[in-house]
Design a protein that fits this description.
Blueprint lengths: L1 H4 L4 H7 L12 E2 L2 H10 L7 E5 L5 H8 L4 E6 L5 H10 L4 E5 L15 E6 L5 H9 L8 E9 H8 L9 H9 E9 L4 E2 L6 E8 L8 H13 L5 H4 L5 H8 L12 H10 L1
Parallel strand pairs: 2-3, 2-5, 3-4, 5-6
Antiparallel strand pairs: 1-8, 6-9, 7-9
Helix pairs in contact: 3-4, 8-12, 9-12, 11-12
The protein binds S-adenosylmethionine.
């Protein structure tokens, strides 16, 4: 893609700006612009779309998103060392890249983009799950984003798409299953990153469901926390602190079942009986 956007190869960018990867910031960079394009394409057509990207780093994925025609990219980066490299991309795509320096966990995302917004990111592993949960939790639904295309460690990706009776099913699977349609897009091996992480990564694509089962987020959180906090125990035991058998009876759920056997609909029923 160096030929496609005329910008220098990422390896040169990293060297010129002294962007040696910092583990504490979850920095595992993607230097293969074909791969970053594949991730950006997974988000679907980007014309007229504002893309929010968390952690652009030296800008490999940012460049792919811009080359694929996104109207605007708003990128939040915590490491100030990356800003000069990102400024070069901004200069190449005038008016189409805004870089916000700061911690994505503290950003008010709803105020960032105008019009349809899609989130695309190779997330730092240490804050990735928390960011996803934050994007799934607003009371107002549908949310400000039209889709999310996100890279996670494979183990987290499996938890995101897991449903009942799956070993990876847990609080994250219930939350994602309740409010989104989530699918695994493709795996990315460790050697695709610089430096390579220890584990395989996976790109996940999520779209909001139009009509999630009506249910208060806080009640659902309470139920899944209690149920999966002791996932091997029967629900009559694990749910004792929040109502136990009486709650299960009200929701019409067999108290001898275990958390991992309950569907998202059943968790919502329990939350609504709380
Ligand atoms: N997007 C680049 C790529 O694909 O090569 C870099 C991805 S790297 C896995 C994660 C990036 O997130 C790094 O650039 C890191 O500095 C940044 N980062 C880490 N924690 C952050 C936070 N709390 N808020 C914003 N950016 C963060």
């Amino acid at each position: 893609m160096a030929a496609l956007d005329g910008l220098p190869p990422l390896r040169d960018v990293i060297q010129r700006h002294g962007l040696d990867a910092k583990k504490a910031l979850g920095q595992n960079f993607l230097l293969d612009l074909n791969l970053t394009q594949k991730i950006a394409r997974t988000a679907g057509p980007l014309d007229d779309i504002t893309v929010i990207e968390v952690g652009p780093g030296p800008g490999g994925l940012t460049r792919a998103i811009l080359a694929l025609g996104a109207k605007k990219v708003v990128a939040i980066e915590r490491d100030p060392r990356c800003l000069p490299a990102l400024a070069e991309i901004s200069g190449h795509y005038p008016g189409r890249l805004d870089v916000v320096e700061g911690d994505a966990l503290k950003v008010d995302f709803e105020s960032l983009g105008e019009g349809p917004v899609r989130i695309i990111a190779n997330l730092p592993y240490n804050v990735g799950t928390q960011l996803l949960v934050n994007w799934l939790l607003p009371e107002r639904w549908p949310p400000f984003w039209q889709s999310m295309t996100l890279m996670f460690q494979r183990e987290v990706a499996l938890r995101i798409v897991a449903g009942a009776d799956d070993d990876h099913y847990g609080r994250l699977g219930v939350l994602c299953g309740w409010r989104t349609k989530a699918r695994l897009a493709f795996d990315v091996p460790p050697q695709a990153f610089t430096p390579p992480p220890k584990v395989t990564s996976t790109v996940v694509h999520l779209e909001p469901t139009d009509n999630p089962i009506p249910c208060a987020v806080s009640a659902l959180e309470k139920v899944t926390q209690a149920a999966f906090g002791q996932r091997r125990k029967m629900l009559r035991q694990s749910l004792k602190p929040i109502g136990g058998e009486a709650l299960l009876g009200k929701a019409g759920i067999d108290p001898q079942r275990r958390a991992e056997t309950l569907t998202v609909e059943e968790f919502c029923r329990l939350a609504n009986c709380l």
